[in-house]
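User: two proteins, same treatment. go.

Assistant:
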Amino acid sequence: MNKLLIVGTVAFDAIETPFGQTDKILGGAATYISLSASQFGVKSGIVSVVGGDFPKEYLDKLNAKNISTEGIEVIEDGKTFFWKGVYHNDLNSRDTLITDLNVLADFNPVVPQEFKDADFLMLGNLHPAVQMAVINQIPVRPKLVALDTMNFWMDNTLDELMEVIAKIDVITINDEEARQLSGEYSLVKAAQKIHKMGPKFVVIKKGEHGALLFNNGDVFFAPALPLEEVFDPTGAGDTFAGGFIGHIAKSGDISFDNMKRAVISGSNLASFCVEKFGTERMENLSEDEIQKRLLQFKLLTQFDIELS
C-alpha cells in the first residue's frame, strides 16, 4: 500500500452562510484533505499542530479513517488555529472575520519516521517555509509532490513560495490565483507560465464551474456537478485536492490519463463536502454514494457525435 503524507492546518472553524451558522467546529486544510483521501483506502499521515484545547475525539475520528495523527504536535498550553468567516448569498465570496494563528505562528514541522519514505506528498495550504521544511526532511523524493496554495502567500511570501513551486510536480490553485501567479488573464497562458516555474501538471479550480488540468500542451476539463443545495463551500478546494491525490496514491499511476480520473475523483468528493457544514458530510460518506455520484459525472460528460 502506498503511503501518503499530508501537510496542512488542523483547525477550528466558525462558519456563517445564508443557510445557518456554526460555533467552533473541526476544520483545516489537512483535515479536509485527509478525510477525502481516506475514501481510497490509502495509508496517510498528517503533519500539523494543535493546541491543548483540541478535543481528543477529533483525533480519534481521523484515526478511525486510517489517518495517522502521530505527526500532529499538541502544544498543551497553546490554542489551536481558528478561522471565522461569513459567506455572501452567492457563496462564491466570503469575508474573513477572525484569523487567530495561535500555535501555528511558531510551527516547526516534524515528519514522523514512519512517513519519511512516503510515496506521495500533499502540501496543503500553509506557509511556504513550513512546506519547504517538510520537503527537506524526506530523504528520498516521493513519486509525486503536489501543492495547494493561495493568494495570501503570493502577496506576502512570494520568494519562498516560488522556491517550493520549483520542487513540486502538481499545483492546484483557483483561477484568480493562477492569474495572479502568472500575470496572465488567459488560463491557457497562465498554465504555460506556471509550467515553467516547475510543476509538470497545473490544476486550476473554478469552483462551481469545474476544474482544468494542463500538462505540456494537453488540456482536460472536468465540470462541477450541478447540485440542488449547497450549504457550506468551506473546505471544498481541500476536499478536491484530497480526492485528487488519494486517487493517485491508490493507483500509483502518475500519467496524464490517470490525472484526468483524479480530477474527476476530486470534483466528485468536493460535491459532497458542500452539502453539510464543515466536515460532517465527509465523515459519514459511503462507498455506494461515491460510486453513484461518479456515475452522474460520467453521464454528465459522456456523449456520442459523428465527425465528418
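Protein 2:
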Amino acid sequence: MGSSNPNSKQAKPVSLVIFEGGAVRGALETQMQMVRQGMVLDLVDRAREAGFVHILVVTSYPDLAGRLEATGAQVLVDREIERPFHFGQRLWDVVESCRLEKVLYMGGAAAPLLSSAELQYMREILEQNEEIFLTNNYYSADLVGFTPGEALSRITLPAIDNALPLALSNEAGLRHVPLQRTLGLNFDVDTPTDVLIMSVHPALGEHTRAAVQNLTWDLSRAEAIKELLGNPSAELIIYGRVGSSLFQYLDANTRCRLRLYSEERSMKALGRDARGEVKALMGRLVEELGFTAFFSFLAELAGGAVLDTRVLFEHFHWQLSAADRFASDLGEVDLITHDALREFTRASLEAPIPILLGGHSLVAGGLWALVDAGLKGM
C-alpha cells in the first residue's frame, strides 16, 4: 500500500524495540558500554526523524535509562534476576505485555551508520504488509522487523537474536522481504576494532562521536589496513565468516589484490559454537605451524591481514571472557589473562605486516566502512 491507498490510514504503527544490556567487567568493557550508549541515543534520534512514534528500550543500565528520559522513549529496566537472560523469551515478554503488533527489533550495537531514511523505509514496509519479516542478515541478524508480533508464539524462541529470522521463516511461516544491502544495515559494533573503524566515518552520530573522542586506543593498525586497501601494488588477506556480497564490494571498490578465506559462516545462528562443532582449516594451520610461524607465513603471502579471530577461538575451544577478547583486538597484551590468547596476540603484534584482529563484523561491515570512509575522503 502507498500513501494514496485509502486503507493506508488504518495501517498499524510499528514499534521500535531496542535491547541494550549485559554484564560489564573491566575498563575495556566499560569504555565499550559508553560508546554503545551513545549509539542507542543516536538511534533513538534517527528513529524519531524516521517517523517512529513508539520507541521502547530494554536495558540493564540505569545510567542509560536516565539519559533516555529526555528522548520520550519508553524504557524498561532489566534488573538482576535469578534466571539467565534469554533473548527470545524476553522479546516475547515485551511484545506480549505491551501488545505490540508490528515490531522492528534492534540490538543496541546494531547499525550505528544507519540513516533515518533507511529506518523510515523499514517502518513503511512493516506498516504496509502483514505476515512478513525483514532483516539485515538472514543467517546472523541483529536487526529484525516482523508482523504480527504474535508470530513469536509460533516459534521455538531463540536464545540469541542471530537465529530469529530462521525461526520466523521456518516455524512461523512469515514471508521474507529482502532489503537492499547497504553499509548502514551491515555494519554493527561487536568489538573495539569496530569502534576504531567507526570512528573515522562521517556518518557517525553526535552522541557516539562524543563517546569515541574520549578513547585513547591505538589506531595505527586500522590506519595501515585502510592505506593498504587503496594501494594497487599491495595484497590483503581477509579471513573468517566472509559473505560473497562483501567480496564483490571489495573487489569493485579497492585497489589492492585480495586473498579471501571464508569458513564457518552462521556458526552462531546454527549453534555450532555452542555445541563445540566448529572446525576451521585456518585453525588447523595455526596448530601445525604455531603462532609465530603462522603470522610469519601470512607475511609471505600479503602485506596485511584482517582476521575474524572468533572462528579460530572456537576451533581451539578456548573459553574466553569478553574482556580478554577485547584486549586481544586492541593488542593490549598485558590485560589478557588467558595464556594462549596472550601469546597469540603477541605474535600478531610482532608480525612483519599489520594484522587487524576482530569478530564477524570486522570482515562484514567493518571492511566496508573502512573502504567507504576512504571513498568519502576521510
